[in-house]
Design a protein that fits this description.
Elements: E1 10-14, E2 22-26, H1 40-46, H2 64-72, E3 77-85, H3 93-104, E4 107-109, E5 114-116, H4 117-121, E6 132-137, E7 140-145, H5 149-162, E8 166-169, E9 197-199, E10 206-213, E11 216-223, E12 229-240, E13 244-248, E14 257-261, E15 266-276, E16 283-292, E17 297-301, E18 313-316, E19 319-321
Parallel strand pairs: 13-17
Antiparallel strand pairs: 1-2, 3-11, 4-10, 5-9, 6-7, 8-9, 10-11, 12-15, 14-17, 15-16, 18-19
Helix pairs in contact: 3-5
């Protein structure tokens, strides 16, 4: 395999496989990206969603406005709660999550009604108050208006699943994301026609509340009674090894390298739910199969050598072949 490395802050790489993918990545987006599922142990950990279940009192549950809204709608039981840790995202990512969570908090879904995230907190534009942030777009990772809002979508999707609501629309990302297990993410685009929709199949109104506290996003759903116990299950059907891309960085010491993106293998994942009613036999709800492309590992390096010859051939000032 030959990898073309460009000497500029935007990296374009070609993957030599049965097809060609061209991806443009602004490098600063991933300065705090921490995802690696390229070993069995890491993959098992990544497929475990128990760490995301929010337990104990939530930050807003003593808020008078929240309590009043729940009492008005007879939604005094927390049906589900999901949390996602938020690393330091640059260029507006966390701002958009905060802003979307503020818009989502306090939404009420009447019995039989369909909730749409796009209709509720979109469009994800500057006019609506969003900023540019990192997102996947047409096989690329780049800055777009509303980038980062998919974390809110993922948290709400998981909360709706745990509340045993009926999911009408949900889309997976093109590559795995670092904040929820494969199969539990949710991609939304206002203009691209990707939405998150679910139906209130209970006999009473639902109250949705969300907030970010200490770099953690919380989303919870409240209703009149607790749902049946719901647990996630996944099986990896196929795995495609990732590749490595090198980017020249002359600010490093001679011969020094630095991992910028650990990368992740491509996955084909089957997901299902085990639902355990209180007074009936458990049953399985199939959720289908998601396909994720590999996310290449990105390594910055300084090919200059001091005293020893490195196995790098400099072609020109645009890059090197390995």
């Amino acid at each position: 395999m030959k990898l073309l490395v460009l000497r500029k802050r935007t990296l374009t790489y070609l993957l030599a496989s049965s097809f060609i993918i061209i991806v443009t990545i602004p490098l600063y987006i991933f300065s705090n990206y921490h995802l690696s599922i390229n070993s069995p142990d890491n993959l098992i950990k990544q497929l475990d969603s128990s760490q995301h279940i929010a337990k104990g009192p939530l930050p807003w549950e003593y808020n008078s406005d929240f309590r009043k809204l729940c009492l008005e709608n007879d939604a005094t039981v927390r049906m589900s709660a999901f949390k996602i840790d938020l690393p330091d995202l640059l260029s507006g990512g966390n701002f958009n999550i905060d802003h979307g969570a503020d818009l989502l908090a306090g939404k009420v879904v009447q019995p039989g009604a369909v909730f749409s995230l796009n209709a509720s907190v979109g469009p994800y534009s500057k006019v609506r108050g969003y900023r540019e942030g990192p997102s996947y777009h047409s096989g690329q990772v780049k800055q777009t208006e509303g980038g980062g809002i998919c974390k809110l979508a993922a948290a709400l999707f998981n909360a709706a699943v745990l509340a045993d609501l009926t999911i009408l629309e949900r889309h997976a990302h093109s590559m795995v994301v670092p904040y929820v297990p494969p199969g539990q993410d949710a991609a939304v685009t206002f203009l691209g026609g990707k939405d998150l929709k679910f139906k209130n199949v209970t006999q009473s109104p639902l109250v949705i509340w969300s907030d970010t506290v200490d770099k953690t996003l919380f989303v919870a759903i409240y209703g009149i009674k607790s749902p049946d116990k719901v647990s996630w299950h996944h099986k990896v059907l196929k795995r495609q090894k990732t590749s490595t891309v090198y980017h020249r960085n002359d600010s490093l010491g001679p011969g020094e390298t630095r991992v910028v993106i650990p990368g992740a293998d491509g996955l084909t994942v089957k997901s299902w739910l085990l639902i355990e009613p209180k007074n009936d036999k458990p049953y399985i709800k199939e959720l289908g199969i998601d396909h994720y492309q590999p996310l290449p590992q990105l390594i910055e390096h300084n090919p200059q050598y001091s005293g020893t010859y490195m196995n790098l051939i400099i072609l020109n000032d645009k890059g090197v072949y390995l």
